[in-house]
């Protein structure tokens, strides 16, 4: 009677496969579960997804290298493929495949975590939807072109990185302008999808199962979202985008002075520094864009943990926010966000931060 | 009146008194014979509206809106009369048709007319905007029926132009209900107005009389069939038929009047244009999709003793048709043969040559008994030369796993960027493969080289879209080979597929949304030895890594 549940042993086994980057064993284990009667959806959502979450944590905490994380992600991704094809092969074909309607799944522009979108794609297919998937980092015109060509009933947009929110906004806008509602999903849209609704998404789902349920219960989805992104916020954001190259250079010089260990003056170290500083700026800009300082403070919280795990001095973050505040006198919105960041870094506020 | 519902009134007057009482009522009252429409009586208010009304004569011209409604058998009407809006509803008492009429005051009427006109303009503007935003034929059709429901009708159906014996329809209403299906063209043609509209011969929307045998019944829920009298509007663009819009109103609602017909006409002009544009786009998009699918690289085959990976990101401006091409095929003797190249220029012109090349390469692979890359390259050179003024870079080769877990790779090339090998010690080595471009000169020279990949080692082929990607802090700097080498070096212990994916990620991040040339990557790897899984390496750098994001 162990057939329909995923045991702790199975979980541990799968984690071990990811750690060893053992693709064959991982697939054998996962497909074996499907063969023994566990639903493919459960295997995807209760085995693969949580294991992959752990992979992310192991990387963030510095226990795993980027290479290990990539290798494990590759194994997870292959597992999703095989579980899906096993489910299609053995289980009854979903009643009237594609009869539920057409869904286009895409990752937000700049988003490279494709696994959540892959899992969503397969879960929706298992529920009988006709799904097209555009993969990672889809530019808005790529979505629009597909919308015009294939006429989906709804676009499902996945975003795990909040600094991409302004880019996600353009994708949401372009879909809704073309008359297609958007269901947003992923941790990048903030607690309970609050930023998804701010950007005008019509629906939000925390995970693939929720998304399937929401679509099944509210089919066909309708345009009902309304963006709360104001013209002021867009202007303040645009200013930060225009100044980005200059700010980046300035931050790099400050970083060299304050924390010489972080990022050399040339070569890959410098680029790594640039990447880190770029994300800091992008998070600030995104916070200004959606008018919520939590986008920024949450990013600071992540970077602080990340740096601490690599025994780097996270106090440089404070130096960075202060340096930015010195340069952004003209933008009250940016300054407000930066001072929220400062309060957070100096321990006056926690990362999940209450607003205002 | 009996059919007005509510409590019954109580009367104890003479007939003459009743007439005088009716004269005191503001509403106009006209009674007619139900059978022939002869006017039997009317009150003072009715005489003010229709001064030429006479008892014993038909309503006719003296009370045209009323007569029209009577002729249609309508229970209600709303029409312009004497510059004002006149609304009528019909009750029945025994054999009498009793019309109750009310007229908006002149000022009130003008105000109402203005409000009506503003309302119509807003409706048409919204329609134009929403219809203009969609280029998908089906979605445009769905949007169209959603727009007119409930504004103009309670249920509306758009029938698309017939291409065979059956044709598609989409329906909106009643309420939020939406559906679609197919209908036999023959059935539609039984209704003359619909037939005309289907073939572009119905310039004005027309109300279909209830007398028709109802062949439209399967397009609409039963209660609307009984309601009858749909309004049929032709959708066309420049005389070319684009579909037919059929609208029904429920029994609770006023019949379509002249103002409705006019609004339907103005709407139909916009809708016809949008539908025709979308139809044209859909045909072209379909053609393009078929061609694109034919030009996109085939999925990598499974290969024993080898790991493969690829990434393909065509330039956006040419609708994702690329001059980059690659192909990997399993080889009869084990391992794979492959080729990788980049046609000069980009977009459709480059893609056509890339398609020829792929076809030629595959044909060569079929007819040749042994792999002879230099001979193949010379043949291709002739083909490309005869094809026109374009040329291509090309690497062709084979990879064959050996018994000891290593892989022997042989490549021959012309004009392509030298592939990079990621060695077991984490170093990156360029594998030189000199040669002239394919299709540039009649007497080319091609290079050929052979090397081994030890277990875990990997070779990367890439197109110049990678190294020439412009971005970075300034937005103008090229990604360059040095960065690519560093990026590849950071991929030690990754599988071939992850390496291709990661290099694509780093390049795309470098671009930060800027336009780029076609980007293609192909990786081949000797699988690492069993029992030596990727080992945690000591973290060499303290800083955050470029291209690495927050956890998944």
Itemize the secondary structure elements and their pairings.
The complex is a heterodimer of chains A (356) and B (552).
Chain A: H1 8-19, H2 23-35, H3 40-60, H4 66-90, E1 102-107, H5 115-126, E2 130-133, H6 140-150, E3 154-158, H7 165-177, E4 182-185, H8 194-198, E5 203-205, H9 208-217, H10 231-258, H11 267-290, H12 294-309, H13 316-327, H14 332-345
Chain B: H1 15-23, E1 28-33, E2 39-42, H2 44-49, H3 64-72, E3 76-81, E4 84-93, E5 96-103, H4 106-132, H5 137-148, E6 155-159, E7 166-172, E8 178-184, H6 185-189, H7 192-198, E9 206-207, H8 222-227, E10 231-237, E11 240-248, H9 258-295, E12 307-313, E13 324-330, E14 336-343, H10 347-367, H11 373-387, E15 392-401, E16 407-414, E17 420-422, E18 428-430, E19 447-453, E20 458-462, H12 464-467, E21 470-471, E22 477-478, H13 480-489, H14 496-511, E23 519-525
Antiparallel strand pairs in B: 1-2, 1-5, 3-4, 4-5, 6-7, 6-11, 7-8, 9-10, 10-11, 12-23, 13-14, 14-15, 15-16, 16-19, 17-18, 17-20, 20-23, 21-22
Helix pairs in contact in B: 4-5, 4-9, 5-9, 10-11
Give a description of the structure.
Chain A is 61% helix and 6% strand. Chain A has 356 residues and is an alpha/beta fold. Chain A folds into three domains: 1-91, Orthogonal Bundle (Methyltransferase, Methionine Synthase (B12-binding Domains), Chain A, domain 1), CATH 1.10.1240; 96-229, Cobalamin-binding domain (Rossmann fold, 3-Layer(aba) Sandwich), CATH 3.40.50.280; 231-345, Phycocyanins (Globin-like, Orthogonal Bundle). Chain A has a five-stranded parallel beta sheet with strand order 2-1-3-4-5, with helices on both faces. In chain A, helix 10 crosses helix 13 (316-327) and helix 11 (267-290) crosses helix 14. Chain A is globular, with a radius of gyration of 22 Å. The model of chain A is unreliable at 93-97 (pLDDT under 50). Chain B is of the alpha+beta class. Chain B has three domains: 18-103, Beta-Lactamase (2-Layer Sandwich); 108-287, 2-Layer Sandwich (Beta-Lactamase); 299-525, PPM-type phosphatase domain (Phosphatase 2c, domain 1), CATH 3.60.40. Chain B has 14 helices and 23 strands. Chain B has helices at 15-23, 44-49, 64-72, 106-132, 137-148, 185-189, 192-198, 222-227, 258-295, 347-367, 373-387, 464-467, 480-489, 496-511; strands spanning 28-33, 39-42, 76-81, 84-93, 96-103, 155-159, 166-172, 178-184, 206-207, 231-237, 240-248, 307-313, 324-330, 336-343, 392-401, 407-414, 420-422, 428-430, 447-453, 458-462, 470-471, 477-478, 519-525. A six-stranded antiparallel beta sheet of chain B has the order 8-7-6-11-10-9, with helices on both faces. A five-stranded antiparallel beta sheet of chain B has the order 2-1-5-4-3. A five-stranded antiparallel beta sheet of chain B has the order 12-23-20-17-18. In chain B, strand 6 (155-159) and strand 7 (166-172) form a beta hairpin. Chain B is rod-shaped and about 120 Å long. At the A-B interface, helix 3, helix 4, helix 6, helix 10 and helix 11 of A face helix 5, helix 9 and helix 14 of B.
């Amino acid at each position: 009677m162990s057939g329909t549940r995923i045991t702790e042993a199975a979980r541990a086994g799968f984690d071990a496969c990811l750690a060893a980057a053992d693709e064959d064993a991982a697939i054998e284990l996962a497909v074996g579960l499907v063969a023994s009667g566990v639903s493919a959806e459960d295997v995807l959502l209760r085995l693969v997804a949580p294991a992959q979450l752990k992979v992310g944590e192991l990387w963030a905490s510095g226990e795993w290298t980027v290479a290990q994380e990539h290798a494990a992600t590759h194994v997870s991704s292959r597992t999703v493929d095989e579980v899906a094809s096993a489910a299609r092969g053995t289980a009854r074909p979903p009643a009237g495949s594609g009869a539920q309607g057409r869904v286009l799944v895409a990752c937000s522009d700049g988003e490279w975590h494709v696994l959540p979108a892959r899992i969503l794609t397969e879960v929706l297919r298992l529920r009988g939807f006709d799904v097209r998937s555009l993969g990672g980092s889809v530019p808005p015109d790529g979505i629009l072109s597909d919308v015009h060509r294939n006429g989906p009933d709804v676009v499902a947009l996945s975003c795990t990185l909040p600094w991409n929110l302004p880019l996600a906004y353009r994708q949401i806008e372009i879909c809704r302008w073309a008359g297609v509602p958007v269901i947003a999903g992923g941790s990048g849209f903030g607690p309970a999808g609050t930023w998804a609704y701010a950007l005008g998404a019509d629906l939000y789902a925390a995970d693939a199962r929720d998304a399937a349920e929401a679509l099944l219960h509210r089919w066909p989805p309708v345009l009902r979202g309304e963006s709360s992104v104001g013209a002021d916020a867009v202007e303040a954001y645009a200013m930060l985008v225009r100044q980005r190259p200059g700010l980046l250079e300035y931050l790099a010089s400050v970083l060299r002075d304050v924390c010489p260990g972080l990022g050399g003056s040339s070569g890959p170290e410098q680029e790594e520094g640039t990447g880190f500083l770029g994300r800091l700026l992008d998070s600030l800009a995104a916070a200004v864009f959606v008018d919520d300082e939590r986008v920024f403070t949450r990013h600071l919280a992540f970077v602080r943990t990340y740096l601490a795990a690599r025994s780097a001095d996270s106090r440089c973050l404070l130096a960075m926010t202060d340096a930015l505040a010195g340069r952004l006198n003209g933008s009250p919105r940016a300054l407000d966000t930066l001072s929220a960041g400062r309060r957070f870094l100096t321990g006056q506020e926690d990362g999940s931060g209450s607003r205002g | 009146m009996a059919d007005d519902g509510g409590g019954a009134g109580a009367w104890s007057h003479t007939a003459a008194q009743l007439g005088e009482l009716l004269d005191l009522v503001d509403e106009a009252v006209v009674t007619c014979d139900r059978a022939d429409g002869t006017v039997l009586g009317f009150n003072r208010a009715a005489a003010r509206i229709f001064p030429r009304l006479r008892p014993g004569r038909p309503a006719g011209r003296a009370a045209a809106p009323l007569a029209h409604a009577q002729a249609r058998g309508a229970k209600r009407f709303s029409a312009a009369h004497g510059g004002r809006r006149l609304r009528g509803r019909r009750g029945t008492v025994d054999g009498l048709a009793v019309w109750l009429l009310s007229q908006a005051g002149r000022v009130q009427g003008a105000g109402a007319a203005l409000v009506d006109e503003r309302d119509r303009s807003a409706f048409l503007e919204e329609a134009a905007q929403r219809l203009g935003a969609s280029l998908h034929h089906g979605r445009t059709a769905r949007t169209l029926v959603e727009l007119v429901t409930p504004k103009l009708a309670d249920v509306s159906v758009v029938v698309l132009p017939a291409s065979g014996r059956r044709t598609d329809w989409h329906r909106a209403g009643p309420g939020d209900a939406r559906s679609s299906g197919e209908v036999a063209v023959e059935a539609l043609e039984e209704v003359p107005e619909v037939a005309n509209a289907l073939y572009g011969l119905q310039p004005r929307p027309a109300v279909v009389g209830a007398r028709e045998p109802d062949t439209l019944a399967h397009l609409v829920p039963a209660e609307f069939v009984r309601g009858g009298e749909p309004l049929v509007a032709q959708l066309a663009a420049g005389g070319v038929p684009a579909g037919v819009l059929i609208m029904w109103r429920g029994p609770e609602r006023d019949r379509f009047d002249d103002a409705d017909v006019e609004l339907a006409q103005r709407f139909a002009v916009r809708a016809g244009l949008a539908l025709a544009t979308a139809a044209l786009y859909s045909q072209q998009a379909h053609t393009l999709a078929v061609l694109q699918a034919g030009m996109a690289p085939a999925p990598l085959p499974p290969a024993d003793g080898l790991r493969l990976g690829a990434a393909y990101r065509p330039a956006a401006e040419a609708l994702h048709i690329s001059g980059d091409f690659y192909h990997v095929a399993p080889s009869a003797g084990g391992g794979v043969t492959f080729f990788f190249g980049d046609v000069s220029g980009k977009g459709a012109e480059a893609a056509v040559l890339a398609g020829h090349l792929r076809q030629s390469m595959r044909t060569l692979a079929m007819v040749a008994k042994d792999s002879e890359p230099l001979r193949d390259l010379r043949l291709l050179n002739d083909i490309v030369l005869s094809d026109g003024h374009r040329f291509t870079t090309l690497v062709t080769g084979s990879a064959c796993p050996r018994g000891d877990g290593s892989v022997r790779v042989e490549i021959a090339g012309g004009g392509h960027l030298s592939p990079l090998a990621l060695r077991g010690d984490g170093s990156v080595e360029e594998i030189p493969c000199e040669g002239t471009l394919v299709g540039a000169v009649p007497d080319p020279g091609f290079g050929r080289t052979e090397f081994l990949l030890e277990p875990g080692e990997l070779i990367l082929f890439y197109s110049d879209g990678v190294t020439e990607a412009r971005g970075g802090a300034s937005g103008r700097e090229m990604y360059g080979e040095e960065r690519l080498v560093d990026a590849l070096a950071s991929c030690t212990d990754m599988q071939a597929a992850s390496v291709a994916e990661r290099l694509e990620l780093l390049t795309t991040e470098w671009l930060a949304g800027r336009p780029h040339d076609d980007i293609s990557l192909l990786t081949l790897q000797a699988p690492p030895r069993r029992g030596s899984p990727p080992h945690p390496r000591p973290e060499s750098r303290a800083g955050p890594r470029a291209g690495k994001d927050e956890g998944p």
